[in-house]
Amino acid sequence: MNIILPVFVFLVLDVMSFFIDASGTEKLSFKVTLLLSVSVLLLILNDTLPSTADKIPLIGIYCSVIFSLIGISILETILVNLLKAKGAEKRSVDTTAAITGQNDVEDLQSPPDSIRYQNGMQRSLCWTRVARIIDVTFLVLYIITIIVFLSVLERIWFPK
């Protein structure tokens, strides 16, 4: 219980971290801290388990899968932050161009600045919307994966 419960709490904290505002780096640093905490528990577990075992014990599988889930969650957070930054960057470039009335390439056939600004704003909102869709979809899949994993593990640990 000294290993199983803390690792489960870290997993619950990782799920709850999806509700942290992703505009800053707090979410990513929190998830990395969780991953480091699980890795410390894995090191403690490695010291307590016998090294002559032929196959990996279930508690090792439990901790390794949760470590992997948190690692995948970190990669998803990086992707969402990248998409949100891309949307914010596009929005700031389009806002600057609309305010100054200057563009990198002057074209006689180009639409007015107001239309260009609206299109740029729509593109930046598109990246933000894609990031939000990815985040929500991953959260649902993440919770389903956790439930399936824990139910399979429960059946293996406590056969009927």
What do you see in this structure?
- It contains 4 helices and no strands.
- The radius of gyration is 23 Å and the shape is elongated.
- It has 160 residues and is mainly α.
- The two termini are 21 Å apart.
- Helix 1 (4-16) runs parallel beside helix 3 (58-100) and helix 2 (26-48) packs antiparallel against helix 3.
- 78% of the residues lie in helices and 0% in strands.
Question: What is the secondary structure topology, with strand pairs?
Answer:
Blueprint: H1 4-16, H2 26-48, H3 58-100, H4 113-157
Helix pairs in contact: 1-2, 1-3, 2-3, 3-4
Number of strands: 0
| Total number of helices | 4
Low-confidence stretches: 104-108, 113-117
Can you summarize the main beta sheet? none
Alpha-beta content class = mainly alpha
Helix content: over 70%
One letter per element, helices H and strands E, the order comes to HHHH
In short:
The protein is built from 4 helices and no strands. It has 160 residues and is mostly helical.
How would you describe this structure in keywords?
mainly alpha
